[in-house]
Amino acid sequence: MTPGPIRLSEGAHTALRPATTARITGGFWAARRRTNAEVSIAQGPRRLEEAGNLDNLRVAAGAKRPGFTGDFPFQDSDVHKWLEAASWQLAEEIEGTAGAAGAAEGAHGAHGAHGGELAVQVRRLTELVAAAQDPDGYLQTYYQVRPGAQRWTELHWGHELYCAGHLIQAAVAHHRATRGTELLRVAVRFADHIDATFGPGKPVDTVCGHPEIETALVELYRETGERRYLDLAAYFVDRRGQGTLGDGAEDREADRRPGAPYWQDHTPVRDATEVTGHAVRQLYLLAGAADLAAETGEDRLREALVRLWEDMAATKTYLTGGVGSRHDLEAFGDAYELPPDRAYAETCAAIASIQFCWRMALLTGEARYSDLIERTLYNGFLSGVSLDGDRWLYVNPLHLREGRTGSHGAQGARRTQWFRCACCPPNVMRLLASLPHYMASGDADGLQLHQYASGSYAAGGGAVRVGTGYPWEGRIAVVVDEVPGDGDWTLSLRVPHWADEYGAAVNGEPVAARAEDGWLRLRRRWRPGETVVLDLPPRPRLTRPDPRVDAVRGCVAIERGPLVYCLEQRDQPAGVGLDHLRLDPGTALRDRHRPELLGGVTAITAGALPSRPRPEGWWPYADTGAGAGTGPGTGTPAPAAPVEPVRVTAIPYYAWANREAGAMRVWLPV
Hints:
- The chain has 15 helices and 22 strands.
- By secondary structure, it is of the alpha+beta class.
- It folds into 4 domains: 157 residues, no CATH class; 159 residues, no CATH class; 96 residues, Immunoglobulin-like; 120 residues, no CATH class.
- Strands 3, 14, 15, 16, 17, 18, 19, 20, 21 and 22 form a 10-stranded antiparallel sheet that branches. It has a 7-stranded antiparallel sheet with strand order 2-6-7-8-13-10-11, covered by helices on one side. A 5-stranded mixed sheet has the order 1-4-5-9-12.
- Strand 4 and strand 5 form a beta hairpin.
- Helix 7 runs parallel beside helix 9 and helix 9 runs parallel beside helix 11.
- The longest helix has 28 residues.
- The N and C termini lie far apart (52 Å).
- About 3% of the residues have low confidence.
C-alpha cells in the first residue's frame, strides 16, 4: 500500500476510501514535487538550524546550555512538520529504489540503504526529538527549558496540544514510510501523557487554543488500533465550544484576549452555523471532526460539517480558494467580506481547507469537495511557494497596488526565505510530499479520479494509468490496467464545475453518459488495456463575483481551466498602470503557451482601456447627475482625454511575485 496521511479503519463510515496505490510520475505536479524534494525539503534542516529550533531540542536533551531560542512557544512544530514532509518523500524514494520489500527491512534498512542524505537527516532529527522528551512523555521545549514556563498553564496560546498533534502526524508518516518505530514510540508516549492529563476528573479539563490534536489522535488510533486515542479525540471535539477558554487568559493584555469565537470555543461544533475566528484553527478543528465522523458514523456531526463547509465555500472563500480575509487575528470575516487588496488568505489556511475538503470528499463521495481542492491547489495554495522552491508567501493577496511593492516577512507580499513564525514553509512541504494521496479513491463499485496528474493509481479493486498535460491541456487519457474479475466495474471521472463543455470516449468511441453531480461514471465490463479519454477544453473565460462581495462589484477575473489569472505590472505595455485600467469584456481573450515565461505557462491577453489620473481639482468624487460642474477648483475632476485600447497580459496567479516587485491584481474593473 502506498502510504498517505489518511488510512481509514476497516469499519470506517465513509462513502470512499483513499487509493491503495498512488504515484505522480509526470507533468505539472511531478515538476512541482521534484522542486519540493530537491530544494524545499532539502533545505529544511539548515533553516531549522539557523532559526534555533534544533538548538531548543538540544537544550531539552541536556546537550546544550539552557535557554530558549525563538519568539513563539510552538517552534517545535516546524521540526515535526518537516519530519512529516521528509517521511512522505522518503517513502517515495524507498518505493522507487527497493519497492515494498525495501520498506519492510525496517527503519535501519530503509534509512541506510535507500534514503541517502534525506534518510540521514530524518534519522538525525528523529533522534534529537526522542532525546528531548521528558521521562513522563511530555515534549515541548518552550515549557521544558524556558525559565518560569509551566506545562499546561497557558492553553490559550501555548500550543502544546498543537505541537503534539504535529508530532503525532510526523510519527505516523515516519512509521508508514519506513516501518521504523523510533518516532512512533515518542508520539505514543506523549499521547499517553496527554490521555492521563486531559479529561473529566483529570488534572486538566479544557482544550488547546489551536486545534490540531484532534485529527492527529484519530490517525494514531488508525495506526495503532488503540481505541482510547479515538475516544480522546472525541473528548477534544466535544469539549470545544463549552466556553472553557473564554475570551482569553485574564492576565494577558487586551489584544491577547480575542474572544471565544477566535478559537471556536463559543458554540459546540454540532451547533455551529458558520465558520468563524482564526481560519487555520477553524479548519484544523473541522478536519479532526470529519475524521471523527468517519470513524463513528455520527449523522449529526456529519450534518454540521456539511453546513459549515457550505458556509465557507459560498460566503467566505476567495476566487483562488484562499480563506481568511482579515489580517486582524488571521480570521474569517463576515459573509462576503472578501477584499482583494487586504486579503490575508494565509498559506496554512489554504492547506487546512484542502485537508478538510479531502476528508469531506471521502466521507460523502461528493465531487464538489474535490472541485474546491483543485481550485485551492492550483491557486491559493501554490502561490505560497516560489517557482524555485526557495522563497515563501505567508499571506496571499489578490491585489497589490502601484507603488506598494510589499515588504518581506509574514505580513508582507514579497517572498521571504523563512519566517519568524515559520508555520507555512514546512506545511507546504508536507502537502506536496503527500500529494499523490489526494488524487484518487475507491469504493465497492470502482475507482474515482478526483484530480488529474500523470501517474498510476489503484483503488476499488482496479488500477489505472493517467497521462495528461493538465492544466495547460484538457486531454486526460486513462488506461485501465487491472480490473477485479469479469463483472461490471465503474471508473468515475470528476468533471470540474468550471467545465461547461466536456466529452469522453472509450477506445475511441464517444460515450453517451453524462456527468451527474460532478461525476462521469463509466460502468461496464472493462478489459485491461482499454483507454478512456476525457476532454475538458480549458478555454479562457471571464468570471464575475457574487454582487454581495462589495469590494469587487463591477469587476471581472480571468480564468482558464482550474487556473485563476492575474495581471503583473512588468508584463503590461509601457505607461499602462494596473490601478488605472478597465478591461474591455467585448474583446476576445487569447491564450498562448509560452515555454520561456515563468517556467512555462499559458498566458492570456485581453483588451483593456487605460485611463490617466485626472490632475484637475482636489476632490476625487464626482456628481453623476446633470449640471455637475467640471474643471479646476469646482470640486470635481474634468473628464479624461480619450485613450487608445491596449492588449494586457495575464499570467497564472500561482506564478506571481517570482520576478521583481510590482503591482498585481486579479479582479479588473470593466
